[in-house]
Amino acid sequence: xxxxxxxxxxxxxxxxxxxxxxxxxxxxxxxxxxxxxxxxxxxxxxxxxxxxxxxxxxxxxxxxxxxxxxxxxxxxxxxxxxxxxxxxxxxxxxx
Amino acid sequence: xxxxxxxxxxxxxxxxxxxxxxxxxxxxxxxxxxxxxxxxxxxxxxxxxxxxxxxxxxxxxxxxxxxxxxxxxxxxxxxxxxxxxxxxxxxxxxxxxxxxxxxxxxxxxxxxxxxxxxxxxxxxxxxxxxxxxxxxxxxxxxxxxxxxxxxxxxxxxxxxxxxxxxxxxxxxxxxxxxxxxxxxxxxxxxxxxxxxxxxxxxxxxxxxxxxxxxxxxxxxxxxxxxxxxxxxxxxxxxxxxxxxxxxxxxxxxxxxxxxxxxxxxxxxxxxxxxxxxxxxxxxxxxxxxxxxxxxxxxxxxxxxxxxxxxxxxxxxxxxxxxxxxxxxxxxxxxxxxxxxxxxxxxxxxxxxxxxxxxxxxxxxxxxxxxxxxxxxxxxxxxxxxxxxxxxxxxxxxxxxxxxxxxxxxxxxxxxxxxxxxxxxxxxxxxxxxxxxxxxxxxxxxxxxxxxxxxxxxxxxxxxxxxxxxxxxxxxxxxxxxxxxx
Lengths: 95, 485
Description:
The structure holds two protein chains of two kinds.
Chain A lengths: L4 H10 L9 H16 L33 H5 L5 E2 L2 E2 L7
Antiparallel strand pairs in A: 1-2
Chain B lengths: L7 H9 L5 H15 L6 E4 L1 H16 L10 E5 L26 H8 L3 E6 L33 H8 L5 E5 L6 H6 L3 E4 L20 E5 L2 H11 L17 H4 L8 E5 L9 H16 L3 E5 L7 H16 L18 H12 L2 H14 L5 H21 L5 E5 L15 H5 L6 H6 L3 E9 L2 E8 L5 H14 L11
Parallel strand pairs in B: 2-3, 7-8, 7-9
Antiparallel strand pairs in B: 1-3, 4-6, 5-6, 5-10, 9-11, 10-11
């Protein structure tokens, strides 16, 4: 199933990616080429094969529930685009 | 003395013999970078002040009686390792002005070993590419032919080391991003076992595949760097808690009895016949050193590229959601609302290839497609791992070409992402399976370097370095220097 322009617009919205209108036809064509490459996968028989997420089958390690991190807020906010009184600034969401 | 021609091992001996100081070496190489790098564009940032303070500290430690192999060794870091208070760009506009608030574990460990950081190296944006042409900071040129690509995504690391601007560098390898540029620039590059080197502070592309490692001119230098980079780190939940081997000691093992597997799938259609000849010449040399050779098969190799181009973009689409214009990096001008802020910051901040992969990944993970794409790819991933596990019952290492083609012309494959993806055919299986892989120099075709790849079972980095080191004792491909550098 080939992607249409509207599919690409939906995917871009899900990924919160602003695309230039003029780029959408080329993007659609390229994505369809890539999906064509990927679709070769569907011919592989994987009946009874378990998916592999970590090559060494590692599971999440647990640690003791105690404080290990100190407060770095000032350092982290020093590199933010816009902050005020220790808060990150974004356009108003609620009127 | 031509300081730039020295390997890390030779630098350690020269520093111990007081032939020059670490500070003199750093200054000499910084001057060389400033003079020559405009031709290559291999550095994004130079860290002069940090380098000189680290060099002076190394000289002081040496004067106080310390003798570490990397004490005073100049290196560069791929610009996706976070370096405290230094621009860490990942080759992307979206990280404009991002001075990392902390050091990556790899950066911290190498600094503790006494290395001197001369700068941060250019790369494909977010490590997505095989040509180093997708960087916001411009393409990197191959020192062997300035009209050609150095490979990617660790292309800046490779070009800088190949041009003798620095003796060694860090890189990362998600689908071949250490081994492929090493092959195209006549270097030795190692991708360790997944989990061997901490990913903490390494900006994530595809978390289940990413692994940091060294690029250098010799296997011996890669051993020195790996020894310092590798090891358990509680801050990386996928890092493996297993003792480190003595990689330097492993180098000197004789190759008598070594069993080499040659997978027939690595020598099929698509491989440049001149590269195949060079690979077989390496096999003959290794036989003379005592190795035996067996034909093997990795039947699922052909499915690796489709599986990789689902898994890597899917993980990337999730990892790169953190770049939203709010907490760090690039923010668009005058956003009208929060959604506009996200969309325009990301749309303007990411380059074309990164956007493509985010969209492929978003699609593959979207409702209704997860089983057909991500889960299917993970099943193929197990088939690929099973192929390797079966093959390593009969052989100690697997050998083949690192790349199907020589370094290509700048711009040649820019308009066809799929053509560029196919260049990764021989390297991505090691990432999917998580096994270690190494590329080493194997000669030249038309003046361009050819690389041979060695693959080994989990945690046998020492074996890979051993085979490469023994090969480098009886050949001099790795000592060839590009003209003009």
